[in-house]
Amino acid sequence: MRPPITMTNDWKTEKSDSRRRSQTPSQGPGAVSPEVAEELLGGPTEVTSLVMADGVLFYATAGGWLYAFDVASGDAVWSQSAADLTHDHSRGGPWLCVVGEFLVVGGTSIAVYRTADGTMTNQFEAPPTPDGDSGINTLSTDVWKPTAVDSNSIIATRQGVARLYSLDGTEHWEYSIDDGRFCHPSADSERVYLLQRQVVGAAPEPIVDGIVHALTLSGERVWDVDIHGHVDRFNDASAPVVGDTGVFIAQEASSGSPTGDGLTRIDKHTGVIDWQRDGEYHIALGPNTLYATDTYKDHILALDSETGDVNWSQDIDRHPDSPTVSATSTTVAGDRLYTYVGQQLCVVDTASGDVIDTRTFSTFEPVRHIVGNHALFIGTADGYVVKLGGADAVTDSPDKFCTVCGNNLEEYTDPKYCPQCGHSLVE
């Protein structure tokens, strides 16, 4: 039996009387505490990305700092400035992914760090010079968004360009579009999936087409399909979620779009749309079930991932005194669903839809989270991470959890990729 995740703070990456933080010096180069980073950057900036590998939590802040913390104790492992990878106006970055023993950071360039000590081993795709020609607009606020493909390569998107790289910076192929931009990429052991955002009209509000592209790992197009709807440009919730037989897209519904469908299932092999559902959802994929949270209607659905039939639905009472929560993370870990709805974090039984526990936030604003090592790790708007529960948890073997998103893989038989984030599990 796995110990339950309790909704009490275990540690926070901040020194205070009520929460503990490591007092030991960091082991990595250029080590600096979050407090010092705030001082150097002129103020706190939100956590943009969280990943986990081998008992270490890595996170980035919008101001361009990277941190590594031991997930059990909260002790600092290393911290590093990556400010040259970002710029003041970037939204939604830097983005992180773990590839083997390396942390890949996507910003206005792509950099590779050793997970053990934070040493940067490579940097490529730096912004072009004014007289250079890379197909990338130097004034754009877009940043590179990397996703692991295998133990030595990534797929990364920026604007309307997707490229497959080895960690040494070798570019294997490029796939580009003339109009629109790519959201976060996804991948499994056979293909890469790209969601394109393309504005096709402007009344009564922007009409935005969402086009999904499926490519082989050698960059050849397999299929593409127009799903319509209002695709969120900056949120990684717009990334395709890849299952065994289907690809799922969650979008913002739009009254100005022809259909406004907020949730779409596409047959993974043929590219045919199997079903769509209206609404504005954030989703997580479990075994045979897709969980969808509608944060505007304070509603959670459990859908059969093949047919779209509703297994259960749950209305959540909005907490009247809680500050507004802008976080949109929805995560499945074993028999628990963790999602933000009704201005609170809800822990839901995946089988019945019953709400097991809730947590409101008055001292910090959550912006994203991951689950791993029997604990919930919440990135905050002021650049810290709070760990909820897990003080008595026993660490599972590394192959039980996805090293990128922390998804629990215990219920899957010999998985080839993570059903939640698409990270390849093939060595």
From TrEMBL:
Ranges for the region named Disordered are 1-34
SUPFAM superfamilies from the UniProt entry: Quinoprotein alcohol dehydrogenase-like
Q: Name one Pfam family in it.
A: PQQ_2
Top-rank lineage group of the source organism: Archaea
Bias (Polar residues) occurs at 1-10
Q: Where is the Pyrrolo-quinoline quinone repeat domain?
A: 209-362
Comp. bias regions, Basic and acidic residues? 11-20
Name used for this protein in its record: Pyrrolo-quinoline quinone repeat domain-containing protein
Q: Which organism is it from?
A: Halorubrum ezzemoulense DSM 17463
